[in-house]
Amino acid sequence: MRKLFFYLILLISIIGCNNSNKVKIEGTIPDAEGKYLILKNIVINTPLILDSVKIKKSGNFSFKIEVAEAGFYQLGFSDNNFSSLLLEPGENIKIKFSSPTLAEYYDITGSEGSSLIQELDFHLGNTVTKMDSITRVYKENIDNPGFDSLSIELNQSYEQLIKDQRTYSIGFVLGHLTSLASIKALYQKYDPSTYVLNDMKDLQYMKLVADSLAVYYPDSKDAMALKSDLDKGLTNYNLMRVQKMVKTGEESKLDISLPNQKGDTISLSSLKGKYVLLSFWASWSKESITENLDFKQLYKKYKSHGFEIYQVSFDNEKEPWLKAIRFDELSWINVSDLKYPNSNLVQLYNIKQIPSNYFVDKDGVIVARDLHGKALRIKLQQVFGF
To answer: Is the distance from CB of 345 to CB of 351 less than 8 angstroms?
Structure first.
């Protein structure tokens, strides 16, 4: 009797485990009777057909599948007519489409990841629609009188759309670092050849996501693929940087050795073994002063754990620089050559604005650029674990 009881408990446990991997998808699609709806698993951009169902007269459909780990899926009629999903084991999803065009608005519940994917798709879709509208107006008026002034206005509007979409995508990534949906945000495109995040410095966001997902989804193929792309991107970035230096005749050495406020020369390379925020600022920059107040809190929190700030002032007069250090009680390393804007560091480190910074790892390798506010706090939390 005791053996029978043991086997019953074991059987119940097995059934319970199996059910936890089940995902149920139910929904309705109007005006689609008789069409076949296909469900695909998308693993590293490779589609795998899992199942298909015929839409009933009522418009209803349902799928039941095994999902061992979180991943990306497509629900569609064709390669050009589908909606994207991000499924987790155990989800019970309900979708109500508004039309047989599945990329149009639909209502979805029961899947947080899929709701985030929907948000990303709709936001980019709206941006692309507005971009196409501007392009159409541009082409329609190219031969009309007054086009010169109109073209300036259209170009400004177009550039603003790109800027706004980029800002949104970065904000989404920073706000969802523990979700696989952030991978989708990193790889979104306006068209087949143009990424939303297409600047080399965007590798920093890729690294933030890769580091987070490695903790939350260590076995995810998509997270592993992201890490692989990141490694390739960093390799290409470093190669391009070296090539640029060779081409322009600059030294390939990025070390800095400058005097601090007391006149003692301190080199950046002397800080190997620590995580270093290489910060460029100036006493005349209000943004720099404001950011320094944030730095003070972070420096106090992480200094004893191997964090240092090596701050280079782009002042050209000594007294304002020293006064700012004393007034705000900046206790980290502060150096300057007092030659701005003629300092060679401006070109060497490609400084376009102040404040600007680089995050340097314990081996002296630059791993991120321009981490401000929340992005910097997240990076430090990842590095130090708190």
So the answer is: yes
| 80-92 pLDDT tens trace | 999 999 999 999 9
Spatial distance between the Cα atoms of 358 and 344, rounded to a whole number of angstroms: 17
Class of domain 257-384 as given by CATH: alpha beta
Decide if 203 contacts 211 (C-beta within 8 A). Answer: no
Which of 310-333 are b and which e, b meaning 16 or more Cβ less than 10 Å from the residue's Cβ?
bbbbbbbeeeebbebbeeeebebb
Strand order in the sheet with 275-281: 333-335, 307-313, 275-281, 356-360, 366-369
> Is residue 79 left, alpha or beta, with left meaning phi > 0 and alpha meaning psi from -120 to 50?
alpha
Amino acid at 174: L
Q: Which fold has domain 15-110?
A: Immunoglobulin-like (2.60.40)
Q: β-strand 333-335 against 307-313: which pairing, if any?
A: parallel
DSSP class of residue 353? S
| Residue ranges in the chain modelled with pLDDT below 70 | 1-19, 235-253
Every domain of the chain and the residues it spans: 15-110, 119-245, 257-384
Q: What angle do CA 5, 10, 16 make, to 5 degrees?
A: 125
Per-residue model confidence as pLDDT tens digits over 26-84: 999 999 999 999 999 998 778 999 999 999 999 999 999 999 999 999 999 999 999 99
d(CA 172, CA 166): 10
pTM equals: 0.63
